Sequence to fold (628 residues):
Amino acid sequence: MNATVITLFLIIVLTTLVITYFAAKRTQTTGDFYTAGGGLTGWQNGLAIAGDYLSAASFLGIAGAIALYGFDGFFYSIGFLIAYLVVMFLVAEPLRNLGKYTLADMINARFEAKKVRGVAAFSTITIVIFYMIAQLVGAGALIQLLFGIDYWIAVLIVGVMMTIYVLFGGMTATSWVQIIKAVLLMIGTVIIAFLVFARFDFNILQMFSEVKNVTSHGADYLNPGLRYTFPLDTLSLMLALVLGTAGLPHILMRFFTVKDAKTARTSVVTATWIVGIFYVLTIFLGFGAAAFVGESNILAANPAGNMAAPLLAEVLGGDLLMSFVSAVAFATILAVVAGLVLSGASAFAHDIYGQIIKKGKATDQQQMLAARYASVGVSVFSILLALFAQTLNVAFLVSLAFCVAASANLPVILYTIYWKRFNTTGAVTGMLFGLLSALILVAISPNVISPTEGAAIFVGEPLFPLTNPAIISVPLGFLGGYLGTILSKEADFAKYAEVRVRANTGYRGK
Amino acid sequence: MGTESDYNFDAKRSIETDFVKVAESGPFKKLIQERKRFIFPLTIFFLLFYFLLPILTSYTTILRTPAIGDISWAWIYAFAQFIMTWVLCTVYVKKSASFDRQSKQLMDDMLEKEREAK
Fold:
């Protein structure tokens, strides 16, 4: 570890702590804590959404995947981007108009039922835990590589930082850490992409022609099929990616930080542009790494290709750029896990404690205290899991989180907004069908049971052939919601009239 | 379904804003109808366009043919999806501005009527 890395690393830690200090002063009520008082502008929230999305997985993971697998590495980028259209067209505005702090709030705007809230909170917590373990384990390994410190120390550093942001600064601190990191990440990516493009004489055609000859795959590198060879699995993954975003609790929560549906819309537009431009640039990062770092060096540093971007930075800009990129990657990890802690804590403290146990009668002070306890609880639990999961291959948990979000949350969100007949039973069965089918299918998939020793947790023949179950579990989520609804007589059309008017006009009503 | 008799009003709700009346009113129905006609066809379109890419790359080899230099049609298709996302985003915002005006007008009228009735 050299002096530049340590300096940049400390600058990031200090800056975020200063932000947290100022945010803490502004965090007085539960509204401030969960949603920054609903006071973010479209631009700010857009940057923060983009920040939530440009996790270490997409910055380091996609750059590495493109470097190693060419076109197939780009699939993730496409899925993640189109997902914003689903968010924009179907979910963002009604969600903003109906919800308050959490996904469960939005569904409960229609059904005042504890069981619906309970199941929604359970689904949120499941997604948060999966996503979090993947991020923390990845972070530990990455920081170990970048800064040369032990895995457990790395996990602890990240864990303590995320707890501090959320505990003291709530959503305000989390959002600003996210915004700053998104800006830094874009700057770093643009610089690297520019340097790569310069080496190809600013000629796209030349870039494609040259990378064709630098990898062991030859011309196949530029074509689909290097990584995804099982068509159903590819389609299933693409389904999880495109529908999952609109059901991810930490993304949905971001829409409550703006004042109205119109601002929610502007946030999505900003996020879509930033994320889109970023993903186009990942091609330059991936191709650059393939050409100037080389396949064998990338694989030697990390078999999953996660070191492709930092190594490329070193080749192009020496120690300084490498240090900058490492520091940005560190900031990225911090910001994303903080957002996850916050959404997990909201499910525990707001949904389970505030609404189910206290029946919405807790004082604001009690709720704040609960929110803080829950944040610490979620953090400690995730840190412990991450410490135990060090040797496990948990990268699949990110796509599993997307799959659960798409199967358990999205069907119920859509039914709540758009289906008149939908009822409480349908909401519960929809979420449970989606959630359980996704979990069970993954538990018997090649991610968990693999014939190759060390590739998964257990050795053996997987009972379910697909690595991502979305193609089965998403339809099951919709089917569960449908069957539960029509098999129960209950229906409240007056309530739906209200939901419909509020979702479409933003009128909060009396 | 959908007639007034289906709505089970409780006493508490009836003294609040009459959401059922708003939901059943002509202007609101028109707004919903226009919104649906805008959102659903486009959603179906972009989802089909999206899934066609992995379907074509998984089951056929037509996207492997070079389009411009060494850039194959798969890349062109992928870029087209980016362009589509940005275009649809812009279109959505433009269209929503008109829905905003409609819904504001509608709610203002409704609240005005309610106030007069009291």
The radius of gyration of chain A is 22 Å.
